[in-house]
Prior knowledge:
It is built from six helices and eleven strands. It has helices at 31-41, 54-62, 82-95, 115-127, 185-191, 215-231, and strands at 4-9, 24-25, 28-29, 46-50, 102-106, 132-138, 147-149, 155-157, 174-176, 180-184, 199-204. By secondary structure, the protein is an alpha/beta fold. It has a single domain (4-132, 178-190, 205-231), classed as Spore Coat Polysaccharide Biosynthesis Protein SpsA, Chain A (Alpha-Beta Complex). The strands form three sheets. Strands 1, 4, 5, 6, 9, 10 and 11 form a seven-stranded mixed β-sheet that branches. A two-stranded antiparallel sheet has the order 2-3. It comes from Cyclobacterium qasimii. Keywords: Nucleotidyltransferase, Transferase. This is Pseudaminic acid cytidylyltransferase. GO terms for molecular function: N-acylneuraminate cytidylyltransferase activity.
Amino acid sequence: MSKYLCIIPARGGSKRIPQKNIKDFLGKPIISYSIKTSISSGLFDEVMVSTEDPEIAEVAKSFGAKVPFLRSVINSDDFSPTVDVLLEVIEQYEKIGKKFDYVCCIYPTAPLISIENLKLGKEKLIVEKRTSIFPVVGFSYPIWRGLRETDEGTVELVWPKYVHTRSQDLEEIYHDAGQWYWCNVTDLKRDKKVFSDNSSVIKLNQSEVQDIDNLTDWEMAKLKYELLKGNK
């Protein structure tokens, strides 16, 4: 029987929003939403938090996540890629005799994630035999009408050939929603990357996605969370 692991990577030392991963979000540490959703989904044999910060570790454990080991120093700085963190966790588990077939990386500042989408991602990963599945959202404005500043201080169209094309005729382009990634462990260990030629996606709408890089984003995430919760 296949084994499933949820990894929530929660590094300490956020500069733009101090203690971002455990900052209060509508009455609870924001990481608790990712932990609760992961556990409540029933999709995982284990839900763990990867961190080098003892305070984050204690908060994570208080909400039901496991922290069987702390993250290494080499994977705890601002430049540590997510895939290296995932591979380190997988390796550490294998050292203690625990092997997993599939892993889902869920970010700690993603309170808008839904169990339904996590289940859909797992199903697509297995049924379609993908290396990874992750959610995307369309750009709110057509990127084909993008502008850039010139050296002279003026602006120009990046793709001027689309200046007269109707918006509805422009191809929709998506970006990573920054919430979670389902991965086949064998493929992840081989390719050492989350995105590959055999990755696929789940499309979300703007109300389900909010990147949180500053305090304005934080307040917007609150509004979207309350909107989604009210609708449900």
